[in-house]
């Protein structure tokens, strides 16, 4: 269950980061509310996952999922550049997440 909680926490990190961008500096109410609610839920699930997973693994995977998800949202929804070098960097983050999962007993 800890890995499932961690994965959902990472997805919620993408939600709150994307909503934060849409809040335009917390000046738009609904994206601000989504940011706060998703942030609280993400942290709660991360904390729950950390009961069974090592700190370094849980935090690295959580931030990696968030980074990759925000990267994908930026490209797909916000029209950000998908240059070969940026895609390589995202691939390296993904490989780090996979290695953390494999290396954790």
TrEMBL record:
<dbReference type="InterPro" id="IPR000390">
    <property type="entry name" value="Small_drug/metabolite_transptr"/>
</dbReference>
<keyword id="KW-1003">Cell membrane</keyword>
<dbReference type="GO" id="GO:0005886">
    <property type="term" value="C:plasma membrane"/>
</dbReference>
<dbReference type="GO" id="GO:1990961">
    <property type="term" value="P:xenobiotic detoxification by transmembrane export across the plasma membrane"/>
</dbReference>
<comment type="similarity">
    <text>Belongs to the drug/metabolite transporter (DMT) superfamily. Small multidrug resistance (SMR) (TC 2.A.7.1) family. Gdx/SugE subfamily.</text>
</comment>
<dbReference type="Pfam" id="PF00893">
    <property type="entry name" value="Multi_Drug_Res"/>
</dbReference>
<keyword id="KW-0472">Membrane</keyword>
<protein>
    <recommendedName>
        <fullName>Guanidinium exporter</fullName>
    </recommendedName>
</protein>
<keyword id="KW-0812">Transmembrane</keyword>
<dbReference type="InterPro" id="IPR037185">
    <property type="entry name" value="EmrE-like"/>
</dbReference>
<keyword id="KW-0813">Transport</keyword>
<feature type="transmembrane region" description="Helical">
    <location>
        <begin position="33"/>
        <end position="53"/>
    </location>
</feature>
<feature type="transmembrane region" description="Helical">
    <location>
        <begin position="85"/>
        <end position="103"/>
    </location>
</feature>
<dbReference type="GO" id="GO:0022857">
    <property type="term" value="F:transmembrane transporter activity"/>
</dbReference>
<feature type="transmembrane region" description="Helical">
    <location>
        <begin position="60"/>
        <end position="79"/>
    </location>
</feature>
<keyword id="KW-1133">Transmembrane helix</keyword>
<dbReference type="InterPro" id="IPR045324">
    <property type="entry name" value="Small_multidrug_res"/>
</dbReference>
């Amino acid at each position: 269950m800890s890995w499932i909680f961690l994965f959902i926490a990472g997805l919620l990190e993408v939600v709150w980061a994307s909503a934060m961008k849409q809040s335009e500096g917390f000046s738009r109410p609904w994206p601000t509310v989504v940011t706060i609610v998703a942030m609280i839920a993400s942290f709660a699930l991360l904390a729950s996952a950390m009961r069974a997973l090592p700190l370094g693994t849980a935090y690295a995977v959580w931030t990696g999922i968030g980074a990759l998800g925000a990267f994908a949202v930026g490209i797909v929804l916000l029209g950000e550049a998908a240059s070969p070098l940026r895609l390589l960097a995202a691939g390296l983050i993904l490989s780090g997440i996979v290695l953390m999962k494999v290396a954790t007993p």
